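Q: Is it fine to ask for two folds in a single conversation?
A: Yes, each is treated on its own. Send the first.
Q: Here.
A: Result:
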Amino acid sequence: MGPLTNIFIFAWVFIFTLWNNIQMTVENEFTANYSSNLLTTVPKNISVNIRLLDLSYNKISEFSIFDFMPLSDLRVLNLSHNLITDLDFNAFMFNQDLKYLDLSHNKILKVYCQAVESLRHLDLSFNEFTALPICQEFGTMFHLEYLGLSATMIQRSDFRSITHLQLHTVFLTLQVFSRYEPQSLIALNTKSLHIVFADNQNFSFFLLYDGMSTSENLKITNIRYSVSYKDFPFPPLDLLKKIKTKVLVLDNVDLQWGIIFQIFLLIWYSPVEYWTVKNVTFRGSVGKVTEYEYLFFLSFQERLIDSGSSLKALTLEHVRNKVYYFNQGILYRQFSEMNIGKLTICDAYMPHMLCPKRISSFQYLNFSHNALTDELFQNCVTLTDLKSLILRRNKFKSLFRVSLMTSHMQSLSYLDMSSNMLHYDGAEEHCQWADSLTELDLSSNQLTESVFECLPVNIKRLDLQNNQIASVPKGIAELESLRELNLASNRLSDLPGCSSFPALAALNIEMNSILAPSTDFVASCLLVIALLVTLVLVAIVAFLCIYFDAPWYIRMTWQWTQTKRRAWHGCPREQEAALQFHAFISYSARDSVWVTNELIPNLEKGEGCVRLCQHERDFIPGKSIVENIIDCIERSYKLIFVLSPNFVQSEWCHYELYFAHHKLFSDSSDSLILILLEPIPPYIIPARYHKLKALMAKRTYLEWPKERSKHALFWANLRAAISINLPISFQANEA
C-alpha cells in the first residue's frame, strides 16, 4: 500500500504543479518583478499591460508622473524599502485602477497631497514623519481599507480628516516616539489597530488604554517600561465601560511583575475574549519579589478565582522569567483555576502545572515546549471537559503513565505527545486510555513495536512517525476505527497487513527499509491496491481530458466520421466532383471586411485567377454547418487560414482548423497556407489550440504588410503558394 500511496500522492502533486504552471504563465503576462535589482530610478521599459509592479528593495530616491502615466491598468505597486524622501500623490493621477500602494520603509519627510480614490491599501509606515501624514484629501478615499502610518508624535486633531472612513486596519509605527495626547486614537473608526513602538524606549500606557477603546482587534509591539510599578499610570475608572477590544495581542513585552499583573487585572475585568502575549519577560525587584508584590499576587489569585470574566482564551508564548526566589506554585495555581476555555503556555521552561481544585472549564490546553514530566495531571479528576491536550516537546518518558493521565478526561479526543522521550516495554500493567480519545500523535519518540499493545481502542488517527518500530506484530487487538496510520521514518522491513485495521483508509510508510510487499500483505490488502490504482488513473485521465478539452475533440471526430460515412454512401457524381476549388478560406467574421475587400478581389481577378471557396457564398443550403465545412475542405486543394486575435476567439474557426488538420494528416500533403493578418499574443491562445501553436511554430506563414508598397509582393507570394490547376473535367464543366 505504501508505494501505491506514493503513486497517488505523486499523481496529485503532478496535477497541482501542472495547473500552477498554467496559472503562472498567464499571471506573468501582467506581473513585473524588479525587486532587489539595485535600481535608482523607475525602469522605462515596463509593459503598458502590467497590473502588478514590484520595485521593492532598491535604491530609488524619487519618481514622477511620467514614470507611471503609461501604466493605465496598474493595480498593485510596491515601492517599499527604497530611499524615497518626498511623496507626491499626483504621480498616480493616471492610474485610475490602482488599489494597493506600499511606500513603507522609506525616508519620506514630506507629502504633497492628491486623492487617489481607487486605493484600498495605503502603507506609509516606517518612514520619517514627525506628525502623522494624514492629508485632508484622504477623507475622499472611501474605498480605503488598510492605512499604514508613522510619526513621532500624535495629537487629537490628526485623525479628524478620516474619522468618517470605515477602515478595516490601521497600522501605526511610532519610532523615537516623543508625545501622545490622550484620547487621540478614539477618533479612528477601524476594526483592527496595530501599534509598533521602538524597541529601546518606554511604552505609553495611555496608547494601550485608548487603543482598547478604539478597535475590536488590537496589537501592540515592543512594550517596555523601565520605571517602577509604583509610578505606573493606573487606568481611569470609567475605562472598562469604553473598551471595545475583543482580541488583544501584546508582542515583545518586558515589564516588572507588578505592572504585568495590573494589566492582567484590567483585562480580566474587560470585554477582551482572546488575549495573546508573545516574547514576554517578567522582571522583579533587585532579584526577588517584594512583600508588596507577594501580597498582591495572593489577593489577585482570590479575585481571579471568585470573579467572572469575558476572557475565553489566553496564550503565552516564549516566556522568560527573571524573578528569583519566587514561589512558582502561586503562579501555577492562578493559571489552573482560570475560568476560560483555552489556555496556551508555550516555551516557558514550565516544569509543572497543578490540577484544578474544582471542575474546570478548560476545553483546550497547550503546554508544548516546556519541561513537564510524567507527574502532570496524575489522578486529576477535574478536567472532565477537556477535548484537546498538546504536550509536544516536553520530558515525558512513560507511555503507560500518559495513558493513566488521560483516564479521567472523559471528553478528551485529541492528544499530542510528539517529540518527547516516550517508551513502552510491555511489562507495565494494561494501559488505561480515555475511551473518547480518537486522535493520538506519538511521533518522534523512542517507541518500538510493543506500542501496539498500548493504544486507545477507539483511535481513528494515529501518528507513529520517527520512532523505532521494526514491524507490526501479528495477533494484536483489532483497531476497528483506525482510518489513518503514519509509520514513516521507522525501521520497517515489511508492509503491515490489513487484517488488524479493517477501516484503514490511509497508510504512510515512507523512509523505511521495505523492498517489496510480502505475500501476507498482498493477500490481506488486494482490494485496497486495486482501488487506489483505479482512483489514480481516473484522476489523471479526468484531468487530462478537461485540460486538453477531450470531449470537444471526441464530438468533432464523431461528426467527421459520420460525414465521411454519408459521403462514402452518396451518389457517384458527388464523388467525381470532389475537387472544385483552389483553396478554402477560414477566417473570423470580424475579419470579413479584409477578406471581402482585399483577399478575394486580388486572387479571383486577372490572368491565372484562383477559385476560392467562401462559406458565405459557397455553403450548400439544407446541410448543417459542420457538414458544409467538411465538404468544402474535401473539395479544395489548399486551405487558407487568416490568423488574428479574432480567429482564436471564434468557435467555428476552431472547427475548420481541426478538420483541416485531419485532411493534412490523411493526405500527407502540405496544403495549409497561413496568413498572419495581425500579431497574436501567445497568452490569448486557448489551451485547446495547441495544433495552432504547433503549426505557427513549425510552418512559415505570410504576414500581411501594413505598407502599401509591399502588397504586390504579398499577392505574388500567395499566388505562388496556391499554384494548382483544377481537373480538366471541372474546367470544361465551368466553360
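Q: Second one now.
A: Result:
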Amino acid sequence: MAFRLNRPAVTETPFFSEPPVWLLVAENAPERTCIPLEHTADGPVIRCFLSQFDAMIEAELIARRSRMRYYAVPASEIDRALFRAPRAAGFIAYLHVGWFARSGRILLRLDGLPAGCHQPLRWSGSSAGYFEVDRCMLAMVERLHERAGLFAWRETLREVDDWGGARWAQAQEQALRSLSGLSQDGEISAANQLALFDPEAGQWHLVPIDDAADCDDRS
C-alpha cells in the first residue's frame, strides 16, 4: 500500500505509544511510502511489531527477496487513519508475536518468507483517539516469552534499541544465519510451535503454539 507519510496532528493523541509498536515502511516515490499489509479475514491490515529488532529481521528478509529496502518506524508516527478497519467501525492492526515452526524448524510461506504469526488488535470503542496494545495481548506475549525462558524480554527490547550499529548488525546476522538453517517448506496449518529470537544470546527459542491463544492467522 502506498500513501503520503502524514504524521498525526499535534492536537491528536498518537496511537501505540505505550508500549511502543513498530511497522515497516519503504520509500516508493518522493513524499510517498509503502507499507506491507497482511491479507486477513478482516481485509488488508497493517502488520506491527513490539520488537524493533524483529521488525528489522522481517525487513531484511523482504529485501533479500524483493530488493526493496524497508525500515522500522514507530507506529505512533503514522497517520492514524491508516489503522481504520477496512470492513467495520473502529481500528485494527495485526501484531507479530513470533514465527510459525514445526518440530524445531521454522516454516515458509508460499512466497518463500518465514511465516509470521500475527494476532489481531481491535478497537471499536467510542473514543477515536485511543488505540494501544491491550492488556490481554500483552499477557499472551508475556506468557510466550516466559515459556521461552525470556523473563526480562521488555528490558531486553529497550536495551537492544540502544545498541550501536556493529552489535545490532552482528545480532541480526546471527538471527538470519540461523534462520536459514531452520527453515523448510511446509504447511503453515501444521505448525505446532512459535519461534522467538533472543538478540542478547543470539539464539532462537521454540515454544508450544498453544501458548498463543487465538493464534489462527496462518496465511
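Q: Anything structural to flag on that second result?
A: Two points. Residues 2-125+132-211 form one domain. Residues 144 and 211 are 6 Å apart (CA to CA).
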